[in-house]
Amino acid sequence: MSGGNLLEVEDLRVTFPTRTGKIEAVRGVSFALGRERLGIVGESGSGKSQTGRAIMGLTPPQAEVSAQKLAFDGRDLLSLPARERRALRGGRVAMILQDPKYSLDPVMTIGRQIVETLRTHEKVSKAEARERALDMLAAVQIRDPKRVFDLHPHEVSGGMGQRAMIAMMLIANPELMIADEPTSALDVTVQLDVLAILDRLVAERGMGLIFISHDLRLVSSFCDRVVVMYAGKVVEQLKASELSQAQHPYTRGLLDCMPKIGADRHPLPVLQRQAEWAL
Amino acid sequence: MTPALAVTDLEVVFDRFRALKGVSITVQPGESFGLVGESGSGKSTLLRAVAGLAPVASGTITLDGKPLGRRRDKAFYAKVQMVFQDPYGSLHPRQTVDRLLQEPLAVHGIGDGEKRIQRALDEVGLGAGFRFRYSHQLSGGQRQRVAIARALILEPSILLLDEPTSALDASVQAEVLNLLEQVRRDRALTFLMVSHDLAVVTHMCGRLAVMQNGEVVETLASPDLAAHRVEKDYTKRLLNASGGFVRDDDSSARSAHEA
After folding, report:
1. Best exposed site among A16, A72, A93, B50 by fewest CB in 10 Å?
2. Residue A186, pLDDT score
3. Which helix (H) or strand (E) holds B146?
4. What is the 3-state secondary structure (H, E, C) of B172-190?
C-alpha cells in the first residue's frame, strides 16, 4: 500500500570507500513509515544514524548510497535533482540533531535562525516570519519567546537550545521528522519535557517521526514501533508494546544488560555477540 | 570506625560562582558511595575537589581521619585514583598502553613495573596482546579498561569514578560495571562514583547522595531508593524520569489524531 506510506525504504545501502576497502555502514535496510512514531535503535556503529542521514540526503559526498526504493510521499529521493532535494530538506522533511551546542549556529540569534529556515521554504514577510517564529517558540514551551528570540545559542541551557532546535525544525510544517538522539545530551528530567513537547506536536500535526536512539527503553516508551539495528542491518522490527516478547537474541540481550532500579543482579548479564548476527 | 573519606561543609567557588555550597558526605572503608544529580548539580565538582582538581574555598576533606591540605602529595595519589568519563580524552594518543601504565609507576618510583603491568592488564580483561597498542587501536570499552588498569596499577584503596560508563554502549557498560565490581571485591576498594544514571548508581552503590544546585538534597541507601522510599520531591522527580517516557493523556491524544 504505497499510497498510505509516507516513507518507503527498501534495501538501503550506504558504503564508505576507505584505503583498506569499502565499509558498508548500512547493509540492506528496509522499512516503511506511516504517520507514526518509529524508533530506530542500535549501538554505536550499527548504522542507525547513517540510515537517518541517507533519508535526509546528508550522507558525506564520498559515500555511496543505493536502494531498491527510497521514496518519500511516492517520489524517489535518489533520482531527485539536488535542488528539489534541498527544497524538501528542512521543508517537508526535517531533522533534529543530538546536541544543540553544535547544531545551532553560534554566531546567529536563535530567532534569526528560525526565521531563516521559514523564509527559505515559504514566501512570507519579515514581520510575519517573526510572528510565526515567536509562536513556534511558545509552542515548544519557551516561557519568554521574545527574550529567547534575541539570544545567541550559548546564552541558553541545553534543554532550551534543543527546544529552539525543535522549533526551527517544525516551523516549515514538515511531514516527516527525523530525530537523531534528540535528548541524549540532556538531563533526564529535561529529556522527558522535550519528549513530551515533541510527542504533542507530532500527534497534533500528524507527522511521521523517526526517532533514532541507543536507548532501547526510552524508545520503547515513546514510539509505536521499533526497528532494531545491528552491524548495518535490521535484526528485528516489532511493536514497542511487545518489546518484552522480542525474539532476536540481540534485542533481548540489549534489554537484559542494562541495570534496572530495584533488580539485584550481580554481575549483570553480558551480551554474547554471535558472528551470525552480522551476516 | 574512621571513615575512608569524609567531606565536611565543603565550598567550591569558581570566580564568584558557588559550585558547592556546604556539602558533607562520609564514605566508610570498603563502601561504594554514589553521587547523582543533573548537569551543574556539582557532583563532578565534588569528586574533583576530593582529587585536588577544584578550588576549595572552605570546608575540610579527610582521608582515613587525616585532613587534606591545599596540595595533594604523592602519598595521596598512591591511595586515591580517578577514572574519567571520556575514554577518548583521558588516554594520551601518542603513548602505547605500556607507556601509559609505566607513567604512574615512574612518578612514584615503583620498581616491579613488569609484574604490575601484567597483573593490571589481566585484571581488566585485556591480555598481553594489548600492551603495545595505541589508544586509537582500541574500542571505547577497551580504552576504559586501560583507564581502570592505570588507576589500579598503584594499588590504591579508593577509586574516584566520574561517569565511567556514560560514553559507552549499553552492552559494553554492563561489561565495565561488572569489571569494576570484580576489582572492588578483589582489592577491597572504596568507590566514590558519579553518575547521572540512577539505575547505574543503585546497581553499583550501597548508599548515594542526590545533589542539586551544589547541595546535597538527600542521602539514602540504594534499597530505599529502589523501593521509592524517598523524602524529597527532587529525588522523586529523578526517579520518575528514569522510568522512561509516560504519555499522560495517551488514549485521548491518539484517538484525536487518528480521527
Report:
1. A16
2. 81
3. helix B140-152
4. HHHHHHHHHHHHHHHHCCE
Distances (CA, A) of A254 to A157, A236, A246, A278, B115: 32, 12, 11, 15, 36
C-alpha cell at B133: 597498542
Cell of B197: 544514571
pLDDT in tens, B192-221: 999 989 999 999 999 999 999 999 999 999
pLDDT at B256: 41
* 3-state secondary structure (DSSP) of residue A69: strand
- Inform me whether the C-beta atom of residue B173 falls under 8 Å from chain A C-beta atoms: yes
Chain A: give the shortest CA distance to residue B51, in Å: 25
Q: How far is A159 from chain B (nearest CA, A)?
A: 11
The number of distinct structural domains making up chain B is: 1
B205 to chain A, any CB pair closer than 8 A? The answer is: no
ipTM score for this prediction: 0.82
At B10, which amino acid appears? L
Q: Using one digit for the tens of pLDDT, what is the confidence trace for B2-48?
A: 999 999 999 999 988 899 999 999 999 999 999 999 888 999 999 99
- A184: cell is 541524549
Calculate the alpha carbon distances from A46 to A41, A42, A209, A230, A243 in Å: 9, 6, 20, 5, 19
User: Is any Cβ of chain A less than 8 angstroms from the Cβ of B239?
Assistant: yes
Q: Please classify residue B35 by burial: count the beta carbons closer than 10 Å to its beta carbon, then call 0-12 exposed, 13-18 middle and 19+ buried.
A: buried
Q: Strand (E) positions, A205-258?
A: 208-213, 225-230, 233-239
The 8-class DSSP code of residue B114 comes to H
CATH number at residue B18: 3.40.50.300
Please spell the DSSP secondary structure of A185-206, one letter per residue. Answer: TS-HHHHHHHHHHHHHHHHHHT
Q: What is the pLDDT of residues B51-110, one digit of tens each?
A: 999 999 999 999 999 999 888 999 999 999 999 988 888 999 999 999 999 999 999 998
Q: Are B199 and B205 in contact (CB under 8 A)?
A: no
Cα–Cα distance, B59 to B11 (Å, whole number): 6
Predicted pLDDT of residue B39: 82
Q: Could you tell me the strand order of the sheet in which B56-63 lies? A: B17-27, B5-14, B56-63, B66-67
Q: Residue B151 sits in which domain range? A: 5-258
Contacts 24+ apart (CB under 8 A), B251-255: B253/A199, B253/A200, B253/A203, B254/A203
Task: Please give the DSSP secondary-structure letter assigned to residue A277.
Answer: G
Q: Name the pTM for this structure.
A: 0.87
